[in-house]
């Protein structure tokens, strides 16, 4: 008898092990002890059972530590407080995510307020096995009307961003991620490397870009909203934040040159043409144009007092963009270097860039498709394929559609889509992304809908449907997949690289890489010829 069993011989019961929560909420806080207590009280009233979630608060070196205050609270959920020397929001959130135990992590800010179903709404968007990143909406606190114009401008901007992600034919993208209201799988966060702690701003969009590149699916959930007020009242600090965003967005763009949406120089091409000379002037003469920036903001305030809200917000946008581009100029180091960045953006994302991108895509598609048909094709084989292959014509029209979208010609995109469907028998949705060398062996009857993503060198053998089963999202098909004649791939699922979908199969679940899906509904078996075809 061991000493652990005691003199009576009775077995000592095992020590209870805390259940792993389904969801971990991570909140970084700094000098906001009252606001973080308000938020925790709202988490205590959630409809999601308290056993299903935990909250991790990271105190990023507050002057008055929050731990002693939070330890006094009586809360129904598990709360842990991490304390660190001030290192910035990115480092604090990263520490919180690493400390989290839940499969899904939700990040929000300490100055937010949440409804009672907030956590339940987020968790419902993370079914088992999914790799979703869910961006919730940010609504203005009713008290925002008492805030300065530049803070009310943020609320107006958030509404515009939400509108760009809302609706059945729109979707969220990685570069739209913001840490005020987002949830994702902890495993995906860790695999992507987490927040870049070297970034003093914009670490959220940079993480979003990496998560999307890693294959995560982004969703926008209007119902999972937070209310955002603000304790920022200094116009000078607001300008400094704009300047810092210009600096750090430049660093994000340097890391992700293939994502033009994160390039700060896009403002020179995307903003109202009447504002562009002011933005260019801020880049050419940053200090000399500061009085101009002040004058624009003064005019915006006058418009605000006169009840001209749209004009007031537009003026505030120009004010912000001028200071933001000064930050980008600071990061560039000199006017000639800034000019090189502007030229590079124009040649990649501007009108000249769209033409170059079109030519490159058509060439790459021709080589990929010809290679799949002829092995190592010569020039004659490539030319014959271009002239005779309906499958290549589908791709060529698709690249022209993409160029029309990039050039801001939606009618051209629509007309080419009609031609693609009527002449070649393939219907491809407005927001579908096709990789290079996608080959429609027999094009008639194939539909690729919604915002489905199709990787490189995927082959469709005809009469295929890539769509949604219950209006719950569209598939992601990875590289080198073959889709047999009559097959259906439905729902927010992922078909792994090099997989084979059997003829007439109906695929409703994820297919791992190097697998075969056959039957109705499809059953999944490993490929036996991974090294061959």
TrEMBL record:
<dbReference type="InterPro" id="IPR050834">
    <property type="entry name" value="Glycosyltransf_2"/>
</dbReference>
<comment type="similarity">
    <text>Belongs to the transferase hexapeptide repeat family.</text>
</comment>
<keyword id="KW-0677">Repeat</keyword>
<dbReference type="InterPro" id="IPR018357">
    <property type="entry name" value="Hexapep_transf_CS"/>
</dbReference>
<dbReference type="InterPro" id="IPR001173">
    <property type="entry name" value="Glyco_trans_2-like"/>
</dbReference>
<dbReference type="Pfam" id="PF00535">
    <property type="entry name" value="Glycos_transf_2"/>
</dbReference>
<dbReference type="InterPro" id="IPR027791">
    <property type="entry name" value="Galactosyl_T_C"/>
</dbReference>
<protein>
    <submittedName>
        <fullName>Serine acetyltransferase</fullName>
    </submittedName>
</protein>
<keyword id="KW-0808">Transferase</keyword>
<feature type="domain" description="Glycosyltransferase 2-like">
    <location>
        <begin position="24"/>
        <end position="139"/>
    </location>
</feature>
<keyword id="KW-0012">Acyltransferase</keyword>
<dbReference type="Pfam" id="PF02709">
    <property type="entry name" value="Glyco_transf_7C"/>
</dbReference>
<dbReference type="Pfam" id="PF00132">
    <property type="entry name" value="Hexapep"/>
</dbReference>
<dbReference type="InterPro" id="IPR053376">
    <property type="entry name" value="Serine_acetyltransferase"/>
</dbReference>
<dbReference type="InterPro" id="IPR011004">
    <property type="entry name" value="Trimer_LpxA-like_sf"/>
</dbReference>
<dbReference type="InterPro" id="IPR001451">
    <property type="entry name" value="Hexapep"/>
</dbReference>
<dbReference type="InterPro" id="IPR029044">
    <property type="entry name" value="Nucleotide-diphossugar_trans"/>
</dbReference>
<feature type="domain" description="Galactosyltransferase C-terminal">
    <location>
        <begin position="161"/>
        <end position="222"/>
    </location>
</feature>
<dbReference type="InterPro" id="IPR045304">
    <property type="entry name" value="LbH_SAT"/>
</dbReference>
